[in-house]
Amino acid sequence: MDVLERILTTLAQEFSDLGQVEHITRATLRLLLAMFLGGLLGYEREVMGKAAGMRTHMLVCLGAAIFVMALEQDGAEADAMSRVIQGIAAGVGFLGAGTILKGQNISDVKGLTTAAGLWASAAIGVAVGLGREATAVLSTVIVLVVLHLMPLMVDPGTRTRPDDQADEKPGDRR
Questions:
Q1: Which among 33, 50, 89, 125 could disulfide-bond with 65, CB atoms 3.0 to 4.6 Å apart, if both were Cys?
Q2: Domain membership flag for residue 12
Q3: Sign of torsion, CA 95 58 141 71?
Q4: If phi over 0 gives left and psi between -120 and 50 gives alpha, with beta otherwise, what is residue 143?
């Protein structure tokens, strides 16, 4: 066996974690769906001029799906999967905290909705990674309704809680 054959054999072994065409197709579809759904949420945030936009939401959703899929492919038990999902939620929570800015007074807080959107993107990525595509798509639609349509239904003058106005400037809608 010459060197090239050994290299090719080693490469084949290293990339054999998906093996069959069905597994490759399933993984590819899940990763593309996670990227697409995260992109939809990020697009809404980007159009609204928020700090975390399309690429950030895509990467959060895609990353969460990858963490879950890699563990699932390894045959992880439910308790291990639960710990990974907890880690994703906590880690993205820290990422979201970076989008939150506090002003001088208590009602001057910006970025809460964007942070919550990042967290929701991670949850959607987890759903996709677990093979719950319908749940992920439905969740994305609901999050988009909350982000885009809810502000149209609520009169800004009726909001009294600081977190309700977290991401907007006076006169803006989220």
A1: 125
A2: no
A3: negative
A4: alpha
